[in-house]
Structure formats: C-alpha cells, structure tokens
Amino acid sequence: MEKETDWNALFSDHPIFSLPKGVAESAGKNETSLELSLGSLPEFTEVDPEHDGPTPSGRRQVMIIKDAELIVAAGNEIRMASLLDSKLGRPVRKSYKILHTPNIQFEIHQLALSPHGKLLAVAGASQVAVVVLPRAGFTKLVPSTIDCKTIQVGQFYHAVDTSAPVAKIEWHPWGEGGTTLMVMTTDGKLREYDMSVDSEEPQQTLFFVPDKKKNSFIAEDESEREVVSFTLGKGRADWGPLSIYAITRSGDIYAICPYMPKNASIPLAYVHALECFVAAKQEFLARSPEEGTSSNGLENMYEYQHKYVAALVKQLPSDDAHPEASRFILMHPPSIMKNPPVRQGPFLLQPSPRTLEGSEGGDATDIIYLAFENEAEEAHGDMERLGVLLTSFQDGRVDVYLDLEKVEARWEHKHDPDSDLPMLAVYETVDLGIVSSLSKIPRSESDPSFLELLRGNHPVLFSDPIHDDTVYVHHAFGVHALQLGPLLRSLVQVLRGGSDNNQDDNAIGLSAQDCKPTVVQLILNTLSIERKCSSPVVGLSIPNDIYLTYSLFILTSAMCITVFPLNLRSETPYSISSELPLVPENTPSKLQSSSATPPTPAYISLLTQDTYVIPSALAQSATSLISRLPPSPSQGEFVLTPDTMRYLGTVVEKFGTKLHEIAVAHRGTEMRAAIQRQEFARQREKCKEMLEIVSRLKGPRHAATQEKLKNIESVQKKLMGRLDRVLQLLIQKASPDLSENETRWFNELKRMKEEVVGRSKYDDRSLVARSKLLRREVDRLLPQLKELKGKERERKRRLAEDREALGVSQAFELGKRSNAERVRINSIEDEILNLAARLDVTLGRPPSSQSQSLDP
C-alpha cells in the first residue's frame, strides 16, 4: 500500500507560508501582533477600510486549493505553489510564484475560485477584484513573479470611501461560462456581476434590507439591518435552486425566490421537473374544497409561478426530439414578470433556539444550506431531498434548522395579501465549547473577563466537497467538525416509517425524540491558556482531487499550516432499506428478536464472566464469633451461673453454624477448582488447535493464498485490458466523431508539430532546421574562438611578464615619460588640424582618436 504523504513535514519550512511583508518588515511586529488577546481585541473589532491591516477581523478565507495548486494570500500578495511535485516525491526546491497584480493594493480577506478554476475572486474590506490565473505548468517558469490580468469589480460601488464593507463573495454555479460573481455587502445589497459582459455595472441587484423610511419614529436595531452572509438554496424538483438566503447580524433569516443569473446555464431536467412541480400544485389547489382569501392568494401565486415557468420552457430548444437530461441550456430571467421578487421573512424559528450556558448570546456570522441526496429514494421518487440550514454565532453556537416548508416563488403584488411568515424547524443547538474553554482561563479580579474575546470571533461554515453530511467550522479558537450523518439517518427512518406505516403525528413525534444528535469533533485548538491568547484560523481547504490527497488544510493568522488526513467513507444511502432487510407484511418480523440476541462467541468458557470471590465463611476469622464471657459475681473463683450457661449455648450454636458454612464453602471451592482444571485442559486443547491452524496458515495455506493472489492479480490485469478495449469500443460507438475539445486539442498538436518539425522537409523556419543551422554556425565559429582565446591568453601572459621585468620606480618613470609624450603628441595633432583647416585641406582622423575608438 502506498505510504501517505506527510504534508506537515513538507510544509514545515515552505516559504509560501512566510509572514506578510507588512508584518515581517515592520519594527516591533511579529506573530504575536496577529493573535487574538485582550490587548489586540480592538484591532479585531474596529475595522477601518481605509487602513486595513493584517489583523484577521471579520470573515477570512485566504487559502484555497485548485486541483494540485495551492493558492495563499498574504497581505495584498497572492502566492501559488504546486502540490504535485511534493506528492510524487520529486527532489525540487521549495518555492512559490507571486502573481503580479498591481490593481490589488488592499489587504485580501477572501478568496473564491470560479467553477471552471480559471478566475480567482479577491475581496478586501470593501474592494473586489478578479484575477485570471495562469495556466498549468507555471512552476516551470524561471521568473518568480508571473504577470496576471486583474480586473477591478464595481469600482463605483466598492472602491469609494463610502462603500459598504463586503460581507461575502461567491460564484454562482449556474452562471454561463462560470463567470457570474455575487457580492454581498453589509447594507443588504447583493450585486451580480458577469465578468464576460461588464465588470463595472451589476447585471442584477437584490435588496435584503429595505431603505429606511423618512420621518419614521420606529426604533430599529442596527444589527437587524446588517447582513453578514448569504447562501444559495438547493433542490431537485422545487424552487430550492432558485432561492437565496441571507442572515443578519441579529440572527434573522430572509429569503428571495426566484433568483437566477442574468445569463444562466440551467439543467434541462430541472426545468421540466419544476414545470411538473408547479402543475401539481395547481392541480392540488383545484381539487381542494377550501375557499376564501387564502385560497385566492395561493391561486394568484401559483398563476404567477406558472407564467414564470412557462417563460422558461419557451427558451428551451425545440429541435431536439430526445434531449439529454443532464444537458445545460442557456437561459435568461423571464421579462414577463414586471414586479420584482418579494423578500420573504424573517423566518419563524420553532421552537426558539436555546442560548448557551454562561453566554449572553452573540452575533450571527455565517449561514449554509445543505441538501442530502438519497439514491434509493431518488430511484423510487417518493421522497423529497432533505434540506438543512446551519447558522453560526460568535459564542460558538451552531443552530441546525430543518427546511420542512420549502420556500416558493413570490412577487410583489397588490392583490397578494400579507402571507404568514415562513418557518424553519429548529432541530438542535450545537455547542462548540468555546465559552467553557474561555471560562477555564485563570484571571485576577481586576482583569476583564476573557469572554470579551468572543467579540473578535467570526466562525465560518465550510462544507466537505466529498461528503455532504460533514461541515467544518473554523473560528478564532480552532476548527470543529460537525457530522450530520447519524442525524440524517435517524430522520430518514422516522420519515420513511411514518409514510410507510401511516403513523399519526404523535407516533412520529415520539419517534423523532429518539433521533440522534449531531456529532461534534474538535479538530484543532489554537487557544493557549498559558499565554492567554489564540491564533485565529484564516484559511481552510480540502482538495477536490482525491488522487492528490483527501486531507484538511488549516492555516492560522500566524501563517502556520496544519494538515489532518481524512478518511473516505462508503456512500451508503440514508434509508431503512440499506440497513434492514425487506420483510413481507404478512410474514412475522424477527428483526427485533434478532437484533436483541447477541452473536454467539467462537469460544464459550466453563467459568462465569464474574471474578471468583472467596466465600465469606472462609475469609472470616473464627475468633470474631466468640463474644466476651459475662463477668462473674465473685472475683476469686469461677462460678457456673445461668448467664454462663446461656453464653456457652450461644457459642456452641455459632460454632455449629460456622462449621456448616465452612463445609458448604469447601464443597463450592472444590467444585470451582475442578471446573478450573477442566477449563485449563480445554484451553490447552484450544491453544493446540490454534497453533495447528497457525502452522497451516503459515505453511501450505500461505503458499496457496499467495498463488491465488497472483492468479487474481494476473486475471485483474487481463480484465483491466479488456475493460479498456470495451471502453474504447463504447466511446467509438457513442461518439465516432471527435468532440469539439478533442478537435481543438489535435489542431493544437498539429500546429506545434508544424512549428517544431516544419510543414515540409525543406522548411527552414522550423525549430529543428533553425537548431541545426545554429549548431553548424557554432561548429564553424568554435575553432576561431578557441584560437582567439589562446592568443588572448598568450598576450596576457606576455603583459604580465613585462610588468614583472620592470620595478616600481622604473614603471613610474616610464609612465610619467609616456604621459608627457602623449601630451606632446596631442598638441602637435591639434596644430596640424588647425593648419589643415586654414589651408582647407581634408585630413583623416588622428592616430590617437583611432586607437581610442578601437579600445573596448
């Protein structure tokens, strides 16, 4: 088995994780200036966009992994390094390339990679830019700096003094060409930029916070008007993919539906599924006997939804008789809807989430929407995808909500009455243990509470790209992993059991009480109780290429990297059918009895599992039975009295009882010894059998197994070759012609071949012909150069000998005389030139000027 790469050892002294220039070059600053403590708390809470420093305040994500390339932001500098060389164990020097981006003159807070991996979105406190990443193979370039095209995004909205801070940036997965960038600012405005169309003006703008009304005396909390994060909804045959959720600092959740990019690439199967979903809603409403205002409101809403979906269906191509379900179609938001989508919310949280013990509550920091696929249920089509919303708070609280009432499309309309607020079912409140960890730090009575550090905490939720049921939370005090798998399995069992057995609400409620909670695991703790500070986590990433590695890369504010290897799990669907066998309804089930009966062990001992205890009759001393003789009335002699007779009778009775107990204990001890002797003999026989089995396994069985493994390996190689041939035949039958990418690739290879070899045999512009010509010229000039080199060496040798022949005084006098003669020659040349000018005679250049021009 291949040995796992030790990434911690490879990154121990890698220069890509050096401190930013602003910290490394400043006097008096070091890694401690980036740590969170009571002294540095103001730098984490008071954000100044004009003088944004390296202190990791607010949302931070400064490290991502693109295929096998590591991208790290340090200050306003973007660094890239290849992980593939380290993975393959190549002896290369640890280095990195700097992306030359002169337009980025701000501290980088967030990085976001486009879906196709060619564009990198960069966000600071309030500014946003997009960098075009270099192609693969950039590490082979000689210069340490690579020029990259940088595009400023929305300078009028994000690059002025009055710009609102950037809360979050994210690429829309359904944007055409992967160029749709969404920028959420804290004032509640979500702007959509299409980098292929216009990077200055947004294509669309959504408003999650309405403008303040003038002359209004209603008191509003500022935290209710500050948006801190957003997330995209998910779904398969509902309005989930066209929904977007946002959370404010106070914890209020809002949603807008429908929303799709101006230039969207939507799966064809989803459009047809949404059409069936809306038609089923209308049909159900038509069959419902209820009438009234609510029924009329639903009828109007479904009518608008039908118009919206019909406008989407009209954009589908009509030339395909049997289109592929996975095909993506270019679409635009229907213009038939004149009114904008209405903001829905705030969501009602039922029941109310509980607060953590010892905490006064904290501001919300992030939100994420998760949808869990079920292959078995997808095949039957009888269950919807289970949606879960997670929100994080400063005090380490993570609320888990179940999206039972999915958000539907709504538009602002005067005939549409004010509907009820949407609802989220609160499943549980997860405690990351941050409050309890801070409470353990010792402090004096005069020092402030260390719970004040929570104001500088900003937890960020990160979903695992491989497993949908795993979410990581990185914050100022470390990293936690949330395993939602047990929760989902129990919920699916309850929902499936209720739908199959037609249980009532009370039975389903009792079953839901037995559901398992979220499993919380501490991955990394950066809080130092001795130093009373913490190094916040500013970057967390997992490679999307499992052939490279499946590990968790964690980067702290002090540019310290830590890598934790993760384990791949088998994809088991969350259904009862995958855990329990199917039993006919008329057949009595034995699942309960079989699950309660433990498996039979391979060896059953004659002895009980309890430890043998010595009987009390043998352990107790006999002297404890004899009590004191009652005192005699006369001190001198022994007198037999009634008390003495009673005493003797009692002692005799106790001795008799004790003798009987000792006899019974003796028989029990002998039986125990006999059983132990039998058990010892049985164990010796069993050990003998085990030794014989081990000898057989080491001898002929081992050789037979090795031979079988070799046969299996040879058959496997044959099967792999056969599989390759079958796959090639299937590819040729499925697409006999080359695809567009393959045609483009072969054309590029042909062009490179013509450039290297030439179009014909006598093409003198090819690289091969030019290299041969260069070689001939080198061979022709090389003898002359060697001859000149020898003459130069001989000249230097003679000059050195001449210098050695003259003394210091002689050389000084010779130089003095030479300078005098040179001055005299120059004066004579000047007189001759003046005389020639008077006589109008043309002369050549004097010898002195000719010699100067020849000198190097």
From TrEMBL:
Entries under Pfam families matching the protein: Nup88
Listed SUPFAM superfamilies: WD40 repeat-like
Compartments it resides in: Nucleus, Nuclear pore complex
Recorded superkingdom: Eukaryota
InterPro entries found in the cross-reference section: Nucleoporin_Nup88, NUP88/NUP82, WD40_repeat_dom_sf
GO molecular function: structural constituent of nuclear pore
GO biological process: mRNA export from nucleus; protein import into nucleus; ribosomal large subunit export from nucleus; ribosomal small subunit export from nucleus
Alphabetical keyword list: mRNA transport, Nuclear pore complex, Nucleus, Protein transport, Translocation, Transport
Any one Gene Ontology cellular component term annotated for this protein: nuclear pore
Designated name of the protein: Uncharacterized protein
The species this protein was found in: Fibroporia radiculosa
